[in-house]
Amino acid sequence: MAILGETKDGPLVLSPEQVEEIGRELDAIRARVVADLGQRDREYIYKIIKAQRGFEIAGRGLLYLGFLPPFWLAGVAALGVSKILDNMEIGHNVMHGQYDWMREPGLNSKVFEWDTVCPADQWKHSHNYMHHTYTNIHGMDRDIGYGILRIDEDQKWNPYYLGNPLYAFLLMVFFEWGVMLHDLEADNIVQGKRTWAEIKPLAKGQIRKASKQVLKDYVMFPLLTGPLFFHTLAANAAANLVRNLWTFSIIFCGHFPSGVQTFTEEETENETRGEWYVRQMLGSANITGGPLFHIMSGNLSHQIEHHLFPDLPANRYPEIAPEIEALCNKYGLPYNKGRFSKQIGSVWAKIFKLSLPDRLVGKSSQPRIIIMREPKPSEAGV
């Protein structure tokens, strides 16, 4: 295999040997971090858990004064931060197995459950396995459009996609529910490709988990505030909305801004370790920001590093990011990064543009790096 294409800096050609050398260099970075895991990583995740619980307790307490607008708003903010930390810097990362080495039951990826309606086991299948294994491969990675959006030019346009901006907006508002339904593959159900017998176990798990979440957020905690029931119910709904808007934005910035590439099954057939690494770097993007921003994003602001090393503790991504960028520069590969406003702006521009037929908006002229394979003997006429 060879990597061919054009970058903003000119032509790019990587030999098979160079691609495998990239893999070896990245393996060395990973091995070094794994060997260094220890007390500071323990302290970091315990501090995050302590902060998450503190924000939740503060939020719940503030809502006992929720009849006063400043306290209601403060309660919503505290609960929103708590849910973001729980889902992103704790839940998402723990379920990737980033802290399994600690042998801490509460941080074990096999049993951890998070504060959202999607069952953890279904998330681990659709995200950890399907998305991280087949990142940005058409026909294999269902995160390309999530079955409802046209987010890449290689998705064939049809009139349904005129609603692209509306579908994206609704997905953003109800993001936790979209994540929950993702593993059902609703588009395949509509097309008759999946049967009730196939999805029945998934649906049962979703109903069970969603029922617990709804009972907690919209019945139990509001009842605990007595006459402020509806104030608390509204606050919990608002906190969930804050979490949904934020997680949607961070995830879309890491996967769909300008410059992120997709691939075909043919390009990735019999992929080597080095080729897999290159695909992860070309198919992800980073968001620049300060330490607090990175924590609140679950360090998914370092999406490139996360896709390279999904099972390394995310707090290590900022320290290895300069090495990954230097490696990309060494071999002429793009390292897609930008401020939040730039990345989210390009995401929404793409959502609107791709709602229209190609004949109206044209194809992107953005340089693309192509994975080229040596022809098989039969294809070469041998």
Automatic annotation (TrEMBL):
<feature type="domain" description="Fatty acid desaturase">
    <location>
        <begin position="71"/>
        <end position="337"/>
    </location>
</feature>
<keyword id="KW-0812">Transmembrane</keyword>
<dbReference type="InterPro" id="IPR005804">
    <property type="entry name" value="FA_desaturase_dom"/>
</dbReference>
<keyword id="KW-0472">Membrane</keyword>
<dbReference type="InterPro" id="IPR012171">
    <property type="entry name" value="Fatty_acid_desaturase"/>
</dbReference>
<dbReference type="GO" id="GO:0016020">
    <property type="term" value="C:membrane"/>
</dbReference>
<protein>
    <submittedName>
        <fullName>Acyl-CoA desaturase</fullName>
    </submittedName>
</protein>
<dbReference type="GO" id="GO:0016717">
    <property type="term" value="F:oxidoreductase activity, acting on paired donors, with oxidation of a pair of donors resulting in the reduction of molecular oxygen to two molecules of water"/>
</dbReference>
<dbReference type="GO" id="GO:0006629">
    <property type="term" value="P:lipid metabolic process"/>
</dbReference>
<dbReference type="Pfam" id="PF00487">
    <property type="entry name" value="FA_desaturase"/>
</dbReference>
<keyword id="KW-1133">Transmembrane helix</keyword>
<feature type="transmembrane region" description="Helical">
    <location>
        <begin position="62"/>
        <end position="85"/>
    </location>
</feature>
